[in-house]
Design brief:
This protein is of the alpha+beta class. The chain is 49% helix and 18% strand.
Length: 499
């Protein structure tokens, strides 16, 4: 399991599927809620229309038995008086809930005025007065308004503008359904304030919502499966070059063949840039390893000659002490010592040894290193840099030794300030360095002519060490032509302003 979800492809597929799942579930809930709300509102509109049609007939003094809305074709209808009693209901209504009363059978109609002998016996004139009050006194309508559902003040024959809604169920002729009920108040001329409840079926709403939910329950997993499959294929196709790079790098590691390169896709995306950078790294690594191999081979070759010479002299001296060339043995020993010191310094530089951060005055360093040397002219001005005084002294010594081997008469050392740089120049009046070789002479163990032979001293490491020291100090060392026609070596280091 850890291996499965440890791949970028698996995580991308899982993430995309989860995001789509959350989005679809959220959208599905929103769609269902909106669908239910719209269909419920539509059912409420139909119920209100039915209720107002019945209220209109009541306001027009239509008798209960003549009301067309009570046939049950458009849904259940209840008519309640101001006391909440059921005075009329749909035909075949067997059960109802969600309205002000669950009664389904209307109350018996009250006796007509004057039919009751007891009423006429109790008080003649007062009875007539009561009858008159029942039909004409506006206080009755006020009482009906107080008891009405909407609370609006209504004149006789007026229908309330406010409609209240509710949900419930009803059974008509054995069929039970859910309904949306609308309640409308009407003030009649002869029956007081009445409340009409009319219902519209919610079967279409339930059916549509159930259909939508079923479609989502079936379609959601299918869609998620499609999303997961497409994401898996797309990420696999996108990551295929990465797998090719990984396999090639594994093969390079196993074979140790740094000449091989990883395949670069023809796209211009991040993977193509990764492959290109990987190949550039392999190229730099190959060059570094090759440089190290040449360095080891050249160092072995350079060491072999003085060691063989010294051994020969010692063997001759052991057999014939009178033939011992003591000066030659000492010269070979010194040469070995210098070569070993050069190799050790190069090894430290290659290892990334950081120079010290002490202040060094190049002018004072130039005067110190040229002291005691003949044929050297020094022209300086104060210029301070940061670095290792020992390494910078070694750099200047190597440049002076190189210039002495090539100069006819004079070596000139200058130190000047040039903008943000301190510039140290070492020039000779020799034959100079050909322009084509001005970079090659900084390679290790390179000698251009006989003047750079072992007999004249130098194994071809002096300028290479000088260039490496300059780079480690954040500067540059270049070769050019001197005004006198010889070679000019210029060292540029960041200048430190005197505080």
């Amino acid at each position: 399991m850890n291996r499965l979800f440890g791949s970028v492809r698996s995580r991308a597929t899982l993430g995309a599927t989860l995001v789509v799942a959350v989005a679809l579930v959220t959208a599905g809930f929103a769609v269902v809620l909106a669908l239910r709300s719209n269909l419920t509102a539509e059912a409420g509109t139909r119920a209100e229309r039915s209720a107002r049609a019945v209220a209109f007939d009541l306001a027009a003094r239509t008798a209960y038995e003549d009301l067309t809305g009570l046939d049950g074709d458009d849904g259940p209808v209840q008519i309640l008086d101001e006391d909440g009693g059921l005075v009329a209901a749909s035909e075949d209504l067997e059960r109802i809930s969600g309205t002000a009363t669950d009664e389904v059978k209307p109350r018996p109609a009250p006796p007509a005025p004057g039919d009751d002998d007891d009423d006429s016996d109790d008080s003649g004139d007062s009875g007539d007065s009561d009858d008159s009050d029942d039909s004409d006194d506006p206080d009755d309508s006020d009482h009906a308004e107080d008891s009405g559902g909407s609370g609006e003040d209504l004149a006789p024959g007026e229908i309330a503008g406010e409609t209240t809604f509710g949900n419930g169920s009803a059974t008509i002729d054995g069929d039970t359904e859910d309904y949306r009920f609308a309640a409308v108040d009407v003030q009649t001329h002869d029956r007081g304030r009445l409340t009409v409840y009319a219902g519209a079926p919610l079967a279409a709403e339930h059916s549509a919502v159930d259909t939508a939910q079923t479609a989502m329950l079936i379609g959601l997993p299918l869609l998620l499966g499609v999303v997961a499959g497409v994401t898996w294929m797309v990420t696999g196709r996108a990551l295929r070059p990465v797998e090719g790079i990984r396999r090639e790098m594994a093969a390079i590691t196993a074979s140790e063949d740094l000449a091989r390169r990883v395949p670069e896709p023809g796209t211009h995306d991040e993977i193509a840039r990764l492959a290109r950078t990987t190949n550039e790294t392999l190229t730099a690594l190959e060059a570094s390893v090759e440089r190290q191999r040449r360095f080891v081979a050249d160092a072995s070759h350079e060491l072999r000659s003085p060691i063989a010479s010294l051994r020969t002299q010692l063997e001759v001296a052991a057999a014939h002490p009178e033939l011992l060339d003591l000066d030659g043995a000492v010269e070979d020993t010194v040469r070995l010592q210098h070569l070993a010191a050069d190799l050790l310094l190069l090894a430290r530089l290659d290892a990334g040894e950081r120079p010290a951060d002490s202040l060094v005055d190049l002018a004072a360093l130039a005067r110190e290193e040229t002291a005691g040397r003949t044929g050297v002219v020094v022209r300086t001005e104060p210029a301070q840099v940061t670095g290792s005084r020992g390494q910078l002294g070694r750099l200047l010594t190597n440049l002076l030794d190189n210039a002495r081997r090539h100069a006819r008469e004079t070596v000139t050392v200058t130190v000047r300030r040039e903008g943000a740089w301190a510039v140290l120049g070492v020039a000779d009046d020799g034959e100079g360095v050909p322009e084509a070789d001005r970079e090659r002479i900084f390679e290790r163990f390179v000698r251009l002519d006989a003047a750079r032979s072992r007999d004249d001293g130098g194994a071809g490491l002096g300028l290479a060490i000088a260039r490496d020291v300059a780079v480690r100090h954040g500067g540059t060392l270049t070769a050019g032509a001197a005004p006198t026609g010889g070679a000019l070596f210029e060292l540029r280091l960041p200048l430190v302003e005197e505080g």
